[in-house]
């Protein structure tokens, strides 16, 4: 009997499985934050409000385009809480209004009305609104108390109680086929005014009674110049509608509440000595400090990109007087505290800084000691929006805090000097700390626009850097998550697709490491290259190839030029190949190797997969083609193997002493298809394994009653496909397919038929993305990382997905260390490698081997970024974290001293004996 | 093997019985009608419930929790009192989960008929038709905080002492140290007994020692072996003399000179002369010596 057999007999299967895997996957409590970091983002800010409920409040509320409602600590930029709604238009936040402690939100184009308790971060109530697309909403006050919220939709107006969300009344709007209702106004009286427009014809004003929603009066005013109330009109002063017309360059005023049918009174901009920049649409900015009172009579008129004018509507309601001209001025904003209303104006100071000043709104005078400097980041983009929170200081002067939103969607919070002296330590994980001088602190929060789409750790273990990028290219320290450098990419279309390629690593000193970014415009297909040094972010000055034609495919070859840069091949739409770098040396190597370079192209719209071979003159010839009929199924994803993947053991000894050889074809492509039929009974997910050189379909498998989104991992000799099952739609089934050539050792005849085994397991949760761990030479066992919708990253040992798991445990399977098959996959919270650090909306997981064989680096990105390390086979090559140095060294010292002492004692004893 | 098959059959039968029973019970009760769940906009319904974490204030956990229906298909948020409503859900069967990074909640499957009748049941991904009723509106009680972390192995005295290796080392040591104290070696009867037991251990005193055998084998010549025997005998004698004395460092003096004469006339005589005491007697005495020595050392 073999010794191994005896060993396995004596040891129970579950003991092995427990000791080997359960422990290895989990995180120890003292490792929290040691190897991992998380950065939480919220997205591009749409609405921001300061908590004006109390003077000392540090809260800041944001609603963003990622359907997130978040509360921040305004002093440090830390997240108090955030609520992530469903992605897409169904969870889009239409408006955010703040009233006392309650934040009111209209969600999903007028689908839901929510009220949040901002103190606790919980929901007060949620009300379902009638169908119709959302137009506007405003608070309605009676006798100085705000009790209602009016919501205007394109077809109806409804009034809701703020306390419970119940509907007080709902009224259908008249003539809703012709009139576009766009604004709702309440000035604290018993009436609510709804403004609608028939473009270039007339304006409709309807007054509704607050009590029962009855139409009190309805008027229409001729306005042939008016196309949209929303973009060109504001309410100013005692219910005066102020509109600007870019055509006639005039301001129009109209009293909303007037009894008789009035006309717009026109004031030409020329008469006020104002001039609009050519091609600029003038914009009006006004402010209504409290819903129970009418708006202030001062307003801003923006005449050019950097030109604002503060104007005042006089008491008679018709004459307009300019108060102050701001040129140049980037941004303006009103803020009110108590009875005082101020205007904050941001003006450029020099190349690298802007100054923000306060001006009294009613006189236009500058307030003393209110200047704040805002440092401009040349790579970060210009300031985009200004949110000001004004408050009264003890000496009755006005102090303020500013939140500046820049074009890279970052937010900077600036506090005026001297008002707050709390300069404690704050975490720098979320924001970059800019300056910290004279009690002024500034923090910046990265917006999501720079959303990570692709990541590549370039340096191994330890202080390396990762690049994440979107419209900006970032270098991030993989140890701490801090941003090392960033670049703004010019001329990048919003729908461009990217590919990040490492051409040279840091291993070739003195040549700097080199990364290439391939940017492809999705519409035209034209591509451009951006070559840079990933460590310092410097752009390389290498001659880039001219790419006049759309690029179909890129291919990184293991061939290196004399500068140790790997060669990148780009295939254009005429199947011509461009090499980069294209030196003589490279071209010569390519000519020699041409007959062994193959590539494939996928046309998912035609269901076409074709293989090509390179010719010596860098043209190509088609050698195979696979057509998957598009009326049945469409190609969702194609994935080859990693070019640098090592496979440690090519075979596996089975229980009966035969060897199972893995089918390790480096050219194998896994093609995943989804059925076009989405009916739950007929939907399926198909998978094909295609040889990339010959085009032979090696294996095909179909998962019935399954649908996307499909995520799959292709490595070694196995593919794990996760899709969601239709009948039990919440479970995702993983089928693992491992192909192997089995041959018996004892038999002389070699059976050459390859066999594929497959198994399904259902997980209790759906996965958002998946990736498998990698190590340098693949000695470790693999584990699959999956992002779950709950925000957890599950690290599932590959053993649980082994297709050869037997249903009934036998002697052989026990010997092979196979666990019995279970149809339901357990999800243990110990396998969550990010413990309670949830990473929401995970888009992808990237893994890379580190310098240590046992360790694999994992980056999960989506809404947040999370980086950690995993040890699929435990840390066998490093000392444990809890290695007790004190104990070991004290024992060593004790032994040393013991030998010294005993030696001395022995000497004494010998001497005594000699004397005897 | 037969037993296994039998057992599995029985299991299957039991399962079948169970599902049947479930089906019947299901038919009896049917989904409960819940009034007021129909919403204004068409065939959209709402899922209501309440989540409780025992012993924790709601404000400490609701801000990080949310309710997901079918993954992220529909999302609801928790009210300040822990209750929740997920609006705008069409009819179908859904898995409702309260997701909180801090606390564990069991998932519940909620079925909504096209008429808006609701029922809640336990989630079973394998047998999706199995019905184990849960209360509706949902009452979700947390079963405690998540266990994300593994416990470190701590070093304790008991673990150390109970280690088999340590046991193997410590127990013989104890025997060596304690046994002489327990057994009175001066008692002559005891001594005799022990001698006997030693003889028992060495059952066949006639059998030559292995080392002896090896030396014989390698030295090859008869004479040298007898010499060795003589030498040993002499040394034993010396030892016996010194036995009662305190040990001192042994001086090595060559006494080969004594044999020079006898060596000369040795070959003339063919028959081997017996010098020293009998070999077996020596061996026995050696055993005795060894015993005494070891006890003294101890």
Explain this structure.
The complex is a heterodimer of chains A (916) and B (298). Chain A is mainly beta and 916 residues long. Among the domains of chain A are: 328-447, no CATH class; 450-544, Thrombin, subunit H (Beta Barrel), CATH 2.40.10; 550-627, no CATH class; 634-903, Methylamine Dehydrogenase, Chain H. In chain A, 8% of the residues lie in helices and 45% in strands. Chain A has 6 helices and 65 strands. In chain A, strands 50, 51, 55, 56, 57, 58 and 62 form a 7-stranded mixed β-sheet that branches. Chain A has a 5-stranded antiparallel β-sheet with strand order 31-32-33-35-34, with no helix packed on it. A 4-stranded antiparallel β-sheet of chain A has the order 2-65-64-63, with no helix packed on it. Chain A is globular, with a radius of gyration of 34 Å. The relative contact order of chain A is 0.06. By secondary structure, chain B is of the alpha+beta class. Chain B has helices spanning 2-29, 58-61, 157-162, 164-182, 188-201, 210-219, 222-242, 259-265, 279-297, and strands at residues 44-52, 66-69, 74-76, 83-90, 92-99, 108-112, 118-122, 133-134, 138-141, 149-150. Chain B has 9 helices and 10 strands. Among the domains of chain B are: 44-145, Immunoglobulin-like (Sandwich); 153-197, no CATH class. In chain B, the strands form 2 sheets. A 6-stranded antiparallel β-sheet of chain B has the order 3-2-5-6-7-8, with no helix packed on it. A 3-stranded mixed β-sheet of chain B has the order 4-1-9, with no helix packed on it. In chain B, a hairpin with an 8-residue loop joins strand 5 and strand 6 (108-112). The interface between A and B is large, with 60 and 52 residues. Strand 1 of chain A pairs parallel with strand 10 (149-150) of chain B, so a sheet runs across the interface. Chain A: Belongs to the EMC1 family. Chain A: Residues 773-915 form the ER membrane protein complex subunit 1 C-terminal domain. Chain A: One of its GO terms (cellular component) is EMC complex. Chain A: This is ER membrane protein complex subunit 1. Chain A: GO terms for molecular function: nucleic acid binding.
């Amino acid at each position: 009997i073999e010794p191994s057999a005896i060993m396995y007999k004596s040891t129970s299967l579950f003991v092995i499985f427990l000791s080997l895997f359960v422990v290895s996957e989990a995180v120890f409590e003292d490792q929290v934050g040691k190897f991992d970091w998380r950065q939480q983002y919220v997205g591009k800010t749409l609405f921001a409000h300061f908590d004006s409920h109390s003077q000392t409040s540090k809260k800041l509320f944001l609603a963003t385009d990622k359907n997130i409602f978040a509360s921040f600590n305004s002093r440090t930029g830390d997240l108090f809480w955030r609520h992530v709604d469903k992605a897409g238009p169904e969870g889009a936040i239409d408006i955010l209004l703040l009233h006392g402690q309650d934040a009111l939100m209209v969600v999903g184009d007028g689908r839901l009305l929510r009220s949040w308790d901002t103190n606790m971060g919980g929901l007060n109530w949620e009300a379902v609104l009638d169908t119709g697309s959302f137009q506007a909403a405003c608070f309605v006050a009676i006798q100085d108390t705000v009790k209602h919220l009016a919501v205007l939709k394109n077809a109806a107006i409804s009034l809701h109680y703020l306390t419970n969300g119940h509907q007080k009344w709902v009224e259908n709007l008249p003539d809703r086929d012709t009139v576009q209702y766009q604004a709702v106004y309440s000035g604290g009286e018993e009436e609510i005014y709804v403004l609608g427009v028939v473009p270039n014809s007339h304006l409709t004003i309807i007054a509704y009674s607050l009590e029962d929603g009855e139409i009190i009066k309805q008027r229409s005013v001729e306005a042939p110049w008016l196309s949209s109330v929303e973009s060109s009109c504001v309410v100013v002063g005692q219910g005066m509608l102020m509109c600007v017309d870019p055509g006639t360059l005039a301001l129009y005023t109209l009293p909303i509440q007037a009894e008789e049918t009035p006309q717009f009174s026109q004031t030409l901009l020329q008469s006020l000595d104002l001039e609009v920049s050519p091609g600029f649409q003038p914009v009006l900015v006004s402010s209504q400090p409290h819903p129970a009172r009418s708006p202030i009579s001062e307003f801003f008129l923006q005449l050019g990109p950097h030109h604002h004018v503060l104007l005042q509507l006089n008491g008679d309601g018709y004459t307009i007087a300019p108060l102050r001209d701001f040129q140049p001025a980037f941004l303006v904003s009103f803020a009110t505290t108590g009875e005082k209303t101020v205007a904050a104006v941001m003006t450029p100071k020099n190349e690298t800084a802007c100054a923000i000043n306060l001006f009294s709104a009613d006189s236009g005078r500058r307030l003393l000691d209110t200047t704040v400097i805002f440092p401009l980041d040349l790579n970060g983009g210009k300031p985009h929006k200004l949110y000001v929170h004004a408050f009264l200081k003890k000496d009755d002067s006005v102090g303020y805090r500013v939140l500046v939103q820049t074009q890279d969607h970052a937010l900077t919070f600036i506090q005026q000097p001297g008002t707050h002296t709390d300069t404690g330590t704050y975490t720098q994980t979320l924001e970059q700390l800019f300056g910290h001088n004279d009690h002024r602190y500034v923090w910046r929060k990265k917006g999501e626009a720079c959303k990570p789409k692709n990541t590549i750790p370039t340096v191994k273990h330890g202080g390396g850097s990762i690049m994440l990028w979107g419209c900006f290219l970032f270098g991030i320290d993989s140890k701490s998550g801090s941003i090392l450098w960033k670049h703004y990419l010019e001329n990048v279309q919003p729908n461009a697709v990217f590919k990040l390629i490492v051409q040279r690593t840091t291993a070739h000193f003195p040549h700097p490491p080199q990364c290439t970014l391939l940017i492809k415009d999705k519409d035209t297909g034209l591509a451009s290259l951006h070559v840079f040094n990933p460590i310092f972010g410097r752009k390389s000055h290498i001659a880039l190839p001219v790419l006049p034609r759309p690029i179909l495919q890129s291919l990184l070859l293991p061939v290196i030029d004399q500068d140790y840069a790997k060669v990148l091949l780009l295939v254009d739409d005429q199947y011509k190949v461009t090499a980069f770098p294209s030196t003589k040396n490279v071209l010569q190597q390519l000519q020699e190797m041409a007959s062994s370079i193959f590539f494939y192209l996928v046309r998912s719209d035609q269901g076409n997969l074709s293989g090509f071979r390179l010719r010596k003159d860098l043209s190509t010839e088609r050698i195979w083609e696979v057509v998957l009929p598009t009326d049945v199924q469409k190609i969702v994803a194609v994935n080859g193997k990693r070019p640098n993947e090592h496979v440690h053991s090519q075979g596996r000894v089975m229980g009966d002493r035969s060897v199972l050889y893995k089918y390790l074809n480096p050219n194998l492509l896994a093609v995943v298809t989804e059925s076009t039929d989405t009916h739950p009974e007929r939907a399926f997910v198909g998978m094909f394994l295609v040889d990339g050189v010959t085009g032979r379909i090696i294996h095909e498998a179909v998962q019935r009653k399954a649908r996307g989104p499909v995520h799959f991992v292709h490595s070694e000799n196995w593919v794990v496909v996760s899709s969601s099952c239709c009948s039990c739609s919440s479970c995702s089934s993983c089928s693992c397919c491992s192909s192997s050539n089995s041959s018996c050792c004892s038999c002389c005849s070699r059976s050459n038929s390859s066999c594929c085994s497959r198994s399904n397991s259902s997980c209790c949760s759906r996965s958002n993305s998946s990736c498998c761990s990698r190590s340098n030479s693949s000695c470790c066992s693999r584990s699959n990382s999956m992002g779950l919708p709950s925000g957890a990253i599950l690290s599932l040992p590959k053993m649980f997905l082994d297709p050869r798991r037997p249903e009934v445990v036998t002697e052989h399977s026990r010997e092979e260390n196979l666990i019995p098959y279970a149809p339901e996959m357990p999800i243990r919270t110990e396998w969550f490698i990010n413990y309670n650090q949830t990473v929401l909306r995970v888009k992808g997981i990237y893994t890379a081997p580190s310098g240590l064989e046992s360790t694999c680096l994992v980056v999960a990105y989506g809404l947040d970024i999370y980086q950690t390390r995993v040890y699929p086979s435990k840390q066998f090559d490093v000392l444990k974290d809890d290695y007790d140095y004190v104990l070991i060294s004290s024992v060593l010292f004790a032994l040393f001293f013991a030998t010294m002492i005993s030696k001395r004692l022995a000497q004494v004893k010998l001497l005594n004996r000699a004397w005897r | 093997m037969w037993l296994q098959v039998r057992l599995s059959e029985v299991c299957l039968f039991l399962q079948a019985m169970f599902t049947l029973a479930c089906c019947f019970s299901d038919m009896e009760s049917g989904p409960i009608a819940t009034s007021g769940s129909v919403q204004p906009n068409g065939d959209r319904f709402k899922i209501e419930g309440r989540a409780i974490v025992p012993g924790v204030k709601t404000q400490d956990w609701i801000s990080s929790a949310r309710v997901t229906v079918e993954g992220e298909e529909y999302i609801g948020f928790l009210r300040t009192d822990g209750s929740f409503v997920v609006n705008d859900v069409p009819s179908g069967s859904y898995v409702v989960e309260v997701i909180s990074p801090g606390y564990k909640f069991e998932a519940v499957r909620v079925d909504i008929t096209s008429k808006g009748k609701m029922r809640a049941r336990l989630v079973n991904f394998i047998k999706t038709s199995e019905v184990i009723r849960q209360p509706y509106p949902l009452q979700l009680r947390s079963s405690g905080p998540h266990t994300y972390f593994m416990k470190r192995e701590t070093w304790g005295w008991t673990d150390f002492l109970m280690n088999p290796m340590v046991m193997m080392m410590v127990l013989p040591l104890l025997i060596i140290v304690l046994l002489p104290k327990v057994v009175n070696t001066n008692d002559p009867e005891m001594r005799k007994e022990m001698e006997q037991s030693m003889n028992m251990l060495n059952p066949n005193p006639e059998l030559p020692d292995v080392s002896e055998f090896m030396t014989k084998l390698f030295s090859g010549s008869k004479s040298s072996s007898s010499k060795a025997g003589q030498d040993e005998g002499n040394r034993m004698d010396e030892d016996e003399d010194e036995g009662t004395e305190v040990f001192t460092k042994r001086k090595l003096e060559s006494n080969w000179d004594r044999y020079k004469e006898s060596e000369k006339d040795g070959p003339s005589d063919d028959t081997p002369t017996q010098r020293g005491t009998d070999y077996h007697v020596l061996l026995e005495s050696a055993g005795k010596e060894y015993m005494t020595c070891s006890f003294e050392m101890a």
